[in-house]
Structures are given as C-alpha cells and as structure tokens.
Amino acid sequence: MINGTEQFGPPTGRVTGADHFLTDGTRAVLRVTRCRQCGSSWFPARAQCCTCASRDVAEELTTTEGTAYASTVVQIGPRQFRPPYVLSYVDVDGVRLLAHTTTTSALAPGTPVALRLAEIGADQDGPMYSYAVSPTTEEVNP
C-alpha cells in the first residue's frame, strides 16, 4: 500500500467503476496490476499480465497524482454525461487511463492532475460518481 492511502476505502453510493478504485470521499487511488515477470503495469487490475501472460502479478494502489497526456471536449455523447464534457488520457504511476475531467476545457499535455471522486453524470435516478481528474494548476487548452 502506498503511504497515505490507509484511510482510503471502497466508494459507496451510485458509482461507476467502483471495483477499480478506492476513495477517502474526495481523493481517489486506482487499483493497478504490476507484473513481477516483465514489469508491465495495467489498469484496471487483472489476474494475468497482458504483455507476457504471466500470472505472477501484484495488485497495487497508485498515488493520487498524475499527468495529462491528451484531452478532448466531447460535444455529442450519452445524455447522462451532460455534453459537452471533458475526457483525458492521464499517466498515473506507470499506467495510462481514460478519465472524466472536472474542467470545461481540455487539458494541455503535461498538466499535473489529481485523482478525485467526482460526479460524472446524472439521470432520472440521480447523480453518478466515479474517479475523475482535476488539474492541480490552471493549464488548460483554450
């Protein structure tokens, strides 16, 4: 376990991807797989390495911070996600993943981000939550 993640637990409520991350109610950490044979890392966590097919893998938790790789504003999407919304590929502790972003503008590549528990949409049954990223600086694309 990464230092400082002892207070993190499973998310509660109406959460998408709840098996793939832990939260302290604000911040989030991801469950990733690291292969002991080839060193590859994967998200979401899995029982077998997708690079070398080894089953000698360990589930680990990431830190709460990463870096934006690429980002886009989705103009047309599912009604529940209230377009337009931002999706970003982010690098966190050796894995690249796609996450909702809490900004209204795309993030510039290299923008430092923090993993958060955030509302990613809503429908007639109420809000839906999941892990998302927020910039830790004001670097966004115009």
Gist of the model:
The chain has 142 residues and is mainly beta.
The Rg value, from CA coordinates, equals 15 Å
Number of strands: 9
Q: Approximately what portion of the residues adopt beta-strand conformation? A: over 45%
Global shape = globular
Q: Show unreliable segments.
A: none
List the helices and strands in order: EEEEEEEEE
What's the rounded overall pLDDT mean?
A: 92
How many helical stretches?
A: 0
By secondary-structure content and strand pairing, the structural class works out as mainly beta
Helix percent reads: under 10%
N/C terminus separation = 38 Å
What is the spatial order of strands in the main beta sheet?
Answer: 5-6-7-9-8
Give the total of domains.
1
Main beta sheet: strand number and arrangement? Answer: 5 strands, mixed, barrel
